[in-house]
Amino acid sequence: MHNVSKSYGKNKQALKSVHLKIGHGMFGLLGPNGAGKSTLLRMLATLLKPTSGTITINGCDLAREADTIRRMIGYLPQSFQAHPQMTGRQFLDYVAIMKGIGSGKERKRHVDELLEQVNLADKASLAVKTYSGGMRQRIGIAQALIGCPQVLIVDEPTAGLDPEERVRFRNLLNRFSRERTVILSTHIVGDIETSCTQLAVMSRGEVRYAGHPQGLVKIGEGQVWEVELSDNEFTEFEPSQIVGARRTSTGVRCRIVSSSPPVPHAASAVPTLEDGYLALIGGERSE
Ligand SMILES: Nc1ncnc2c1ncn2[C@@H]1O[C@H](COP(=O)(O)OP(=O)(O)OP(=O)(O)O)[C@@H](O)[C@H]1O
């Protein structure tokens, strides 16, 4: 993406001069609500046109070769809905027909393979409306994988999933990222910290960081503190600074992100990826 901006109407600039290069493997797009992540992904999925700037995917210019790009990408939108009355297999077959996947035999083989890959083979004959949230997301990722796209675009796929399904879904994406580019947007740092080799942090339409996760961790260095506060001290503290709190027998043990020691007796702590993220976007977390 080169100098890409996107405005909705006259007053809302959702993306401001975004430069981004995304390579092979798993790429995390991190940012608070309203940062512009979905806008960026919808543009990569050819559903929105940039107001200005250029986007190139595998050498194809999005403005001129959108049809070619559509054949290279799979997309799981933020609010994905499969047809509730169809069975999992019927739904994937339907999407495969829409994507122009060859003969009936070839299509059936492809759909069966995908059902295996997302661990839904034994539920393939049940209506999608009977699926749990995690199963719906897995049928969503299967439909995005139809036609074996080189680029998989996934918008906040773990929202609403329970912890077990979340881990299972992350592992699934991790596996798929071995042979292709997976672009995963989320506002949950845990979704990307074990799997992404590259990431970008967005806030208010701008890319605030792009690079290795380790570089984001480094931003937190010297800005993370641990301290035990009394109950009174704890209630007086600015809540947005406290990123972790654990009750002890004598008070509350807190982890605090702040550019200077929050209290004189605070001890410096080793930052995590989440600390680096919070140190970077600080008070501008959400619109
Ligand atoms: N169709 C639209 N018309 C007007 N404003 C929009 C439209 N879509 C998004 N916006 C605004 O653009 C900004 C970026 O929205 P976007 O959905 O891209 O953010 P996001 O990072 O994906 O947030 P979330 O995690 O909440 O989905 C927000 O201020 C949003 O309100």
Protein architecture, described:
The chain has two domains: 212 residues, P-loop containing nucleotide triphosphate hydrolases (Rossmann fold, 3-Layer(aba) Sandwich), CATH 3.40.50; 49 residues, no CATH class. 32% of the residues lie in helices and 26% in strands. The chain has ten helices and 15 strands. The strands form four sheets. A six-stranded mixed β-sheet has the order 7-8-9-3-10-11, sandwiched between helices. A four-stranded antiparallel β-sheet has the order 13-14-12-15. A three-stranded antiparallel β-sheet has the order 2-1-4, with no helix packed on it. The longest helix has 14 residues. Bound molecules: adenosine-5'-triphosphate. This is ABC transporter ATP-binding protein. It comes from Paenibacillus profundus. InterPro entries: AAA+_ATPase, ABC_transporter-like_ATP-bd, ABC_transporter-like_CS, P-loop_NTPase.
Per-chain topology:
Elements: E1 2-8, E2 12-18, E3 25-30, H1 37-44, E4 52-54, E5 56-57, E6 60-61, H2 66-72, E7 73-76, H3 88-98, H4 104-117, H5 133-145, E8 151-155, H6 163-176, E9 181-186, H7 190-193, E10 198-203, E11 206-211, H8 213-219, E12 224-229, H9 231-236, E13 242-247, E14 252-257, E15 267-268, H10 273-281
Parallel strand pairs: 3-9, 3-10, 7-8, 8-9
Antiparallel strand pairs: 1-2, 1-4, 5-6, 10-11, 12-14, 12-15, 13-14
This protein binds adenosine-5'-triphosphate.
